[in-house]
Fold these 2 entries.
Entry 1:
Amino acid sequence: DGGITQSPKYLFRKEGQNVTLSCEQNLNHDAMYWYRQDPGQGLRLIYYSQIVNDFQKGDIAEGYSVSREKKESFPLTVTSAQKNPTAFYLCASCDQSYNEQFFGPGTRLTVL
Amino acid sequence: AQSVAQPEDQVNVAEGNPLTVKCTYSVSGNPYLFWYVQYPNRGLQFLLKYITGDNLVKGSYGFEAEFNKSQTSFHLKKPSALVSDSALYFCAVRDIRDSGYALNFGKGTSLLVTP
């Protein structure tokens, strides 16, 4: 899992609540990513950031928000607007060569 | 957009036999292709990549992949499978986005190696 940490490992949320997933990296990478994994659907890109204070929507950004105030950190907020948030969330980072992404251990979010 | 496809949801192989996990790609230009492995409830681990050069790429844990431009394929192979190779395997391609790059993943292939 390299130098990327995600917390918590498991997260339970009641409907209507916002929750924030943490992602921290000590690899000095500029680019960071959030993916969502559902069974049989592979990984889908939620948001990504190439540099501090800048980020872009991915393919399934609705109902999610992010911030990138520090190079090391890229937290993801799952809002109450996300219709089906139960999933496994993976954070990744890479350097400016964009030749390999390193992944964190993931956070499993369950909506009760 | 660049994309990859993994035509098999599951591959079963006996321990000691060779294994192949298939991946085909659809890209404009030269592809940057990757294989990752995922064990249950874990993040993805990098196995190997093709950027340029030799069509046969060697990676971690004895895995290799063959880039075939005419067949637009990048199949993952191992000469002799181990039970511990049982996991979920993802093929991915680098895609240019509005700002920078991201990976587009296939849906994954579950590999089961039986003793």
Entry 2:
Amino acid sequence: DTAVSQTPKYLVTQMGNDKSIKCEQNLGHDTMYWYKQDSKKFLKIMFSYNNKELIINETVPNRFSPKSPDKAHLNLHINSLELGDSAVYFCASSQLFEQYFGPGTRLTVT
Amino acid sequence: QKEVEQNSGPLSVPEGAIASLNCTYSDRVSQSFFWYRQYSGKSPELIMSIYSNGDKEDGRFTAQLNKASQYVSLLIRDSQPSDSATYLCAVNVRNAGNNRKLIWGLGTSLAVNP
């Protein structure tokens, strides 16, 4: 019955590798988001999709590429991983203004 | 730069007391305000939303909004040790492309002591 799910939960990889995180929501929401929460716990929006259309791109490096195959799924692909990409990445969804979060993916780049 | 400010704490209260968490925001035209709770190692969980000036109560939680002062607060009555968490304030704003997004405070860490 998980409303917003993400895989994987943990990701440990080396610099320079490429990795993907997947997100799915079963709430029927039209809008999905990717957030990054850094070591200081600051939560910052990266991308937002509404009905598969990208509507927010918050000056994220081109190495990050989101993809929404349908409105229930939002994936995040990261190329050429850097040490500074280490963080927790949260997916969220909303119908209007209230956002609901997935469990997060803890990415560690070594 | 649109901002949301919170006192980082830690705010320490005894069990059974009222915990008061405060948040100020810079965008005068914001209309939607949210409080999330985040336990260590977990994701943010929505606990209250408020859209109109005044108080909104839900169980032990009361959100208070004053748009003139650009201030939103969260009161937790009869605080329990299970309320110990970081409380994040979020404000809905429009970006340059006229799309809505949440901007977040850094959170206030609350510790409820048995």
